[in-house]
């Protein structure tokens, strides 16, 4: 009787076999192109899909009113729409295998976004766990900067950090720092919070690593990494115009606080080095070898996992050398990288799953082709891109960008730059238009008194200044890159 393979080996062998059997995205796209696709825009399935989409987005956008996470309606809505499509094709043709290929191609596109955000947030959670951002807060407080200086410092930090960290994460981080160093002055907290939101959106727009919409453009090769450099000055202008206007309303005094000593845990500086190395590898491998961004990110995650293992093993060795009554201090202990992975924003990840699958379904039903025909053919492409950017003030920009990409418009480089700019900074116009704003609004609850700090009303009051920055950045883009339109 032959020995059966170990259960662990069997399990991993099965997983490997399944991975090898899954078709690649390019292969799936080729098959999807040959699918017999019906125009269901005026069919009951199409009407049902539109109704479900509107309801799902309405519930997701009013998250603060009913306290239901935005992921729930989006995931349910996407499932219902695809069930309706599969049921219709099965009843009409007896099979829906070709529809499954289209579904899988959309799922594969989401998988890369999922892994990219997961790795980014894992690094952020690791740096938070090692005390890096808390040390930054203490350093800013100990320097005794004035409120106006802190207004600019936190804004510039938000702009710079959003170049390599998703803007939604930067919003959460800067909101925490602003609350910690200025919670005694509600006016400062409100204006600094608003400034950080605008800065995070502007900084994230000029980098494919900083936002969902820019990542989609880079992922689909509509813009090469170096072409994003053309957005540098427009994005800086977008940040500076409202910041300069708000500056004169910020409190002139200096916050009072008690001196603290920053404490970085063991390995914190090496974590920062691995973080910088990861994004450097990601960018350089894409520029020189055309490797997908996720390849470099996963390499960085592997390095972080090995470093966590090293810290844990050396912690045990140092613990052995201590007397029995003495324990290893928390600052000298290692960390569990899987706890950092578990701490990612799953609500946001699942929201984007629902949003991308809904967009994919609407594209399959024929709605996006009709919209593309109207936006980019019947009206001016420049006007269409500005209108889409303004729409991002109330609709998630990542979802809008994914929808436009699924329309497959034939646009010159200049128009792709314009679309990337308007979608990225358009979310700053309203508090409900961007993830950083929603995160900062959530932070204010339970910390500031009702109606104080950063609120929807405060954001709306300063919307004209933000709108001025929006159109100023568009004007600068045309001045600097007019020949590419």
UniProtKB/TrEMBL annotation:
GO MF terms, alphabetically ordered: antiporter activity
Gene Ontology annotations of biological process type: sodium ion transport
Pfam families noted in UniProt: CitMHS (PF03600)
Signal peptide range in chain numbering: 1-28
Keyword Ion transport on entry: yes
Main location: membrane
TM helices/strands, residue ranges: 44-61, 73-89, 109-128, 149-179, 228-250, 271-288, 294-312, 349-368, 374-395, 416-442, 462-480
Entry GO terms, CC: membrane
Lipid bilayer topology: Multi-pass membrane protein
Protein localization: Membrane
Domain Citrate transporter-like: 57-424
Keywords, alphabetical: Antiport, Ion transport, Membrane, Signal, Sodium, Sodium transport, Transmembrane, Transmembrane helix, Transport
The keyword Nucleotide-binding is annotated on this UniProt entry: no
Family membership: Belongs to the NhaD Na(+)/H(+) (TC 2.A.62) antiporter family.
Listed name of the protein: Sodium:proton antiporter
Organism: Methylovulum psychrotolerans
């Amino acid at each position: 009787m032959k020995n059966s393979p170990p259960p662990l080996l069997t399990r991993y062998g099965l997983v490997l076999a399944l991975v090898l059997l899954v078709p690649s995205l390019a292969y799936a796209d080729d098959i999807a192109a040959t699918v017999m696709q019906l125009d269901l825009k005026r069919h009951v399935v199409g009407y049902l899909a539109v109704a479900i989409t509107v309801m799902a987005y309405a519930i997701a956008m009013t998250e603060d009113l009913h306290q239901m996470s935005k992921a729930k309606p989006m995931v349910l809505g996407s499932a219902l729409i695809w069930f309706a499509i599969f049921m219709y094709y099965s009843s009409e043709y007896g099979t829906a295998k070709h529809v499954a290929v289209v579904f899988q191609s959309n799922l594969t596109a989401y998988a890369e976004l999922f892994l990219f955000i997961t790795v980014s947030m894992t690094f952020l959670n690791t740096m938070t766990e090692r005390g890096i951002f808390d040390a930054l807060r203490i350093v800013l407080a100990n320097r005794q900067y004035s409120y106006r200086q802190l207004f600019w410092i936190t804004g510039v930090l938000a702009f710079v950090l959003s170049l390599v960290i998703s803007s939604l994460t930067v919003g959460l981080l800067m909101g925490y720092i602003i609350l910690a160093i200025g919670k005694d002055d509600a006016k400062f907290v409100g204006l600094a919070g608003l400034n950080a939101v605008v800065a995070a959106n502007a900084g994230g727009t000029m980098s494919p690593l900083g936002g969902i919409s820019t990542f989609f453009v880079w992922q689909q090769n509509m813009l090469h990494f170096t072409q994003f450099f053309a957005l540098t000055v427009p994005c800086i202008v977008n940040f500076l115009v409202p910041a300069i206007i708000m500056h004169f309303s910020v409190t002139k005094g200096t916050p009072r606080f008690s001196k603290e000593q920053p404490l970085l845990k063991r390995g914190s500086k090496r974590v920062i080095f691995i973080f910088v190395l990861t994004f450097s590898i990601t960018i350089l491998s894409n520029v020189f070898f055309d490797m997908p961004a996720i390849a470099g990110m996963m390499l960085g995650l592997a390095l972080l996992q090995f470093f966590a293992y090293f810290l844990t093993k050396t912690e045990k060795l140092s613990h052995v050398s201590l007397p029995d009554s003495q324990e290893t201090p928390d600052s000298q202990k290692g960390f569990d990288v899987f706890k950092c992975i578990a701490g990612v924003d799953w609500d946001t990840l699942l929201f984007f799953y629902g949003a991308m699958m809904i967009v994919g379904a609407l594209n399959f039903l024929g709605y996006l082709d009709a919209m593309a025909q109207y936006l980019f053919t019947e009206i001016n492409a420049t006007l269409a891109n500005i209108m889409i950017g303004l729409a991002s003030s109330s609709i998630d920009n990542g979802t809008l960008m994914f929808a436009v990409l699924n329309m497959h418009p034939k646009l010159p480089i200049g128009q792709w730059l314009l679309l990337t700019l308007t979608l990225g900074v358009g979310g700053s116009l309203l508090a409900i238009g961007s993830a950083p704003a929603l995160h900062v609004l959530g932070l204010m609850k339970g910390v500031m008194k009702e109606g104080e700090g950063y609120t929807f009303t405060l954001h709306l009051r300063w919307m004209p200044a933000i709108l001025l920055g929006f159109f100023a950045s568009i004007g600068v883009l045309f001045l600097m890159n007019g020949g590419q339109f």
